[in-house]
Amino acid sequence: MGDVRAAVRNARERFSGASPETLLRWGADTFSGRVAISCSFGGPGGIVLIHMAHRLGLSIPVLFIDTGYLFPETYRLKEEVERAFSLPVRTVAPRLSPEEQAEQYGPRLWERDPDLCCSLRKVEPMAKALEGLDCWITSLRRDQSPTRASVEPVELHRLGSGREIVKLNPLAYWTRKDVWRYAAEHRLPYNPLLDQGYSSLGCVQCTARAGDGGERAGRWPGRAKTECGLHTFTERAGSRGSPGPVELGGSASRAGPPS
Ligand code: SF4
User: Fold this and answer.
1) Does ligand 1 come within 6 angstroms of the Cβ of 101?
2) Which of 1, 84, 203, 256 is the most exposed place for a label (fewest CB within 10 A)?
3) Cα separations (Å) of 138 from 39, 48, 104, 169, 242?
4) Cα 203–Cα 73–Cα 28 angle in degrees, nearest 5
5) How far is CA 219 from CA 213, 237, 244, in A?
6) Helix (H) or strand (E) holding 2
7) Which residues does the annotation mark as catalytic?
8) Rounded to two decimals, what is the model's pTM?
9) In what helix (H) or strand (E) does residue 176 lie, and over which residues does it extend?
């Protein structure tokens, strides 16, 4: 635990203003075997990070949370990226199948209690996966939404077990334009639904076309909910108002969306 804290302090001093590639290399070297990139295969950010890791020759596995309710295009993109960049993708599934969840909690839980549904299908499996890691790499950016405006490239987080891990956000200071520029330059594949009016993709039943409402618009339409909880369930050191850690229960060859 002390080592993780020291690593974060050290990285913040050494890497102020560093490139995403520099941060990725640091994460891979410092936490070898205990580091992963999480990718939803919804937006382009995770694929940018996977491509950077591939270019740098870094062996960083990819974590994919499969809620069981994702778009067919998302599953297809995951397979395409897996083939193209030969990084191992570890699919993490919820404890309950969709049928078991309906049996235990009733049908269409996402309509009655989306926070509980997200907790069961996203947060719990991710919390479990993070227990095996010291460094979690994400594609979070400050410009994605007000809830992400204070994201730092290197953060220290506490899990439900009390263990501390590094959350590395190499794209924290990149803009949406930066991400799409990189994707276009490297002809990266991306989710084709982003060309069809969607700006952020999650589960089918909780995602709508976005209109002009911003990058996270279209998620949980008609509700105040804007986050699934994946990026709020850990307690960030130095932050106030965190809901706290969760306890574990039982082709840029295409042009890309306008930036
Ligand atoms: S996004 Fe909707 S369906 Fe998916 S886990 Fe959350 S509430 Fe459930």
Assistant:
1) no
2) 1
3) 7, 11, 32, 5, 18
4) 80
5) 10, 28, 23
6) helix 2-14
7) 228
8) 0.89
9) helix 176-185
**CA 117–ligand 1 middle distance (angstroms):** 5
For the chain, list the domains and their CATH numbers: 2-196 (3.40.50.620)
Ligand 1 atom index nearest CA of 122: 5
Amino acid identity of residue 209, one-letter, is: R
**pLDDT by residue, tens only, the chain of 259 residues:** 458 999 999 998 999 899 999 999 999 999 999 999 999 999 999 999 999 999 999 989 999 999 999 999 999 999 999 999 987 899 999 999 999 999 999 999 999 999 999 999 999 999 999 999 999 999 999 998 888 999 999 999 999 899 999 999 999 999 999 999 999 999 999 999 999 989 889 999 999 887 666 665 677 677 777 777 788 889 998 654 343 444 433 333 344 664 3
Distance CA 183, CA 123 (A): 28
